[in-house]
Design goal:
The chain has nine helices and six strands, in the order αβαβαααββββαααα. With 234 residues, the protein is mainly alpha-helical. The strands form two sheets. A three-stranded antiparallel beta sheet has the order 1-4-5. A three-stranded antiparallel beta sheet has the order 2-6-3. α5 runs antiparallel to α8. The longest helix is centred in the C-terminal third of the chain and has 22 residues. It is globular, with a radius of gyration of 17 Å. The model has no long low-confidence stretch (mean pLDDT 96).
Length: 234
């Protein structure tokens, strides 16, 4: 089944699959400050989808199935270099690109360390909430325009991607206050955010290293390195 049709079916048409409006990447910092709750509302609306008929964790495969039994399995197999395709033998990049083995292993270990806090956190996630993949309509409502990487995982993934994309917008800091304001309980806030952020961070770092995008690699590394300090009070 086509991915968009599948998402529309499980969300019972609550999610607009062909949104119209302004690309969210065009928003200024000031505009995001005024409208960030709309981004958060969108993520929680997605996470509120009833997925009781679905099993597993991870990105949906070509059959729209989440193939992993645990978050840990999802993380481990994401970095499996034996899989055919673009990432086959990706560890060769340690010798040929910006990506360095010691750094990768350190952040990978942190993602696995925090993975137990994400077990049982099964929600529909867009898993591609970079600002270039979102649209803001004339009323400020926010939509995801690309569902190609959607799956079942902790909804913190979608917040972590927002922050990875533009850390200066202080997404987790705003999310913590937003949750208090809305009376949303997010158990193990810090650990769950860090797990998803480290996981997505090194995977995104791999991609930019593979295309020799040094500027993005340096920016992502700075973002990853700052996370522990930023999250210490949560």
């Amino acid at each position: 089944m086509n991915r968009d049709i599948f998402i529309r079916n499980i969300t019972k048409d609550r999610i607009e699959m062909s949104p119209k409006g302004r690309n969210a990447n065009e928003l200024s910092v000031e505009e995001f400050e005024k409208n960030y709750e709309n981004f958060f509302d969108m993520i929680f609306e997605i996470a509120g989808t009833d997925i009781s008929s679905l099993t597993g964790y991870g990105e949906f495969d070509e059959n729209n199935i989440a193939p992993y039994n645990t978050v840990k399995e999802f993380i481990i197999d994401t970095f499996n270099e034996e899989k055919e395709g673009y990432w086959h033998n990706w560890r060769q990049m340690f010798e040929t690109s910006y990506l360095k083995k010691d750094y990768f292993e350190k952040i990978y270990a942190k993602a696995l360390e925090y993975a137990p806090y994400c077990e049982g956190q099964r929600y529909l996630a867009n898993n591609n909430t970079f600002f270039c993949n979102m649209v803001v309509d004339e009323n400020g409502k926010t939509y995801c325009a690309d569902w190609g990487r959607a799956g079942i995982m902790d909804y913190m993934m979608d917040f972590a991607i927002l922050d990875l994309n533009k850390p200066y917008l202080l997404v987790p800091e705003k999310l913590y206050e937003y949750a208090k304001k809305k009376n949303i309980e997010i158990k193990n806030f810090r650990e769950r955010f860090l797990c998803m952020a480290y996981f997505k961070g090194i995977h995104t770092l791999m991609w930019h290293a593979s295309i020799d995008d040094l500027e993005s690699c340096e920016s992502i590394t700075r973002s990853i390195n700052a996370l522990e300090e930023r999250m210490k009070n949560y």
